Amino acid sequence: MSPTARASAEGGTPGAGPGLYTRLAAGVLFPLHERLKGHDSVAVLRRLERSQWAGADEIAAEQGTRLREFLVQIGARVPYYRELFARLGFDPRAVRSAADLPRLPLLTKADIRAHAERMQAEGHGPLTRYNTGGSSGQPLVFYIGKARKSHDVAAKWRATRWWGVDIGDREAVVWGSPIEHGAQDRVKALRDALFRSTLLPAFEMSEARLDEFVAWLRRVRPTMLFGYPSALSYIARHAEGRGVRLDTLGVKVAFVTSERLYDEQRELIARVFGCRVANGYGGRDAGFIAHECPAGGMHLSAEDIVVEVVNPEGQPVPPGQPGELVVTELATAEFPFVRYRTGDVGVLDTRRCPCGRGLPLLSELQGRTTDFVMAADGTVMHGLALIYILRDLPGIEGFKVTQETRTLTRVQIVPDQRYDAAMVPTTIVQGFRRRLGAEVEVQVETVAAIAPERSGKYRYIVSHAL
């Protein structure tokens, strides 16, 4: 592909490069930052930016080689997989492609909870403890090493550059994780300032806070946005209702992830901010799975992640048919996820994207959604504000939160053997009242299972108060 065609496919304009500070940040400051953290992100990025233009067969061959090496490594170093391979008579040295993976069972959150210690590789390096957001109703504690972090950074960095923006361009991040909010120390504040990234908390969406967000956006004029589609569309709807224009700020792209992106959200965000919307799919547990390019293709990060679409028995379904997405992250040898069940439904596409990349495509994706909730005083906040109260409590296998009114919220709990009937409900009531208001009635009940909606889908935050 010619440089002109490639620049067009990546969403950039030939000859129109980034500003001086962005070049400094992306070319010098961020690589130094990653090196000091012991990450190989720059080297991984270079590899991914080369391999994305290879043909589908070449990418599949590279994936097969990396998959075999990964399985051999965890079969030797990870007690859980060493025992599993021996029990099944599975020889990782014989693996040639992803087509060999169905010989292994699917991995569930319950499996990880039960075997977390034995899933850590012998002689592993530093591991960081993480939690899932819990929007599936099944919070999960797991661990990530530096190789996985390097891949996630590099894969996101590659996708960012597809859209003609880079590290160092002004960025507004509308997010809700206490991991980010709890780390607002001097080092992180300096890092964010250095790379011109500002975190806007998505938990609280009061009228006053939304006015602050809109005023900040108009003052700073970010080049890109990143956040939940629900949160960005909520800001867009608020600005539009106020008659405040945001389409003249120079925003190039809004990156959205962590929830399903609905067509009406895409249209609203694009219209109000005057930019393209780029959908992303992944998570802390499953990794950086897929991202949309300017040509509209939802590209899988196939060099380092194997994605299967399977039926309930764990067997592959033909391309074009929906099934559950299960992933094997090849950069997680220190705490491996092999055939990990995401709980999401997707469809693989056999076509090649017009952008010219050989990376395989998801033609359809049904991710989970997390709704907003409303406090007794009318403050709107992201549903994750309640989920984070539940996710680390012991003895909770699953949950569903239903906000009936501003003053009544019901919590259904599926308990396991560690459930403390005296402590858990009290903790939930106290935590929810801190978020929703002291006068709110919070009813906690235990159930055998969480029932699906009439549509057959599962929702774990449902609000009738908005």
Q: Look at the helices and sheets and give the structural class.
A: alpha/beta
CA distance, first residue to last residue: 50 Å
Integer average pLDDT: 89
**Beta fraction of the residues?**
15-25%
Low-confidence stretches: 1-5, 7-15
Largest β-sheet summary: 11 strands, mixed
Silhouette? globular
Top CATH class of the largest domain? Alpha Beta
Q: What is the spatial order of strands in the main beta sheet? A: 4-3-5-6-7-8-9-13-12-11-10
User: How many distinct folded domains?
Assistant: 2
Helix % is 25-40%
Total of helices: 14
The CATH level-2 architecture of the largest domain is identified as 3-Layer(aba) Sandwich
Please give the number of β-strands.
19
* CATH fold-level label of the largest domain: Rossmann fold
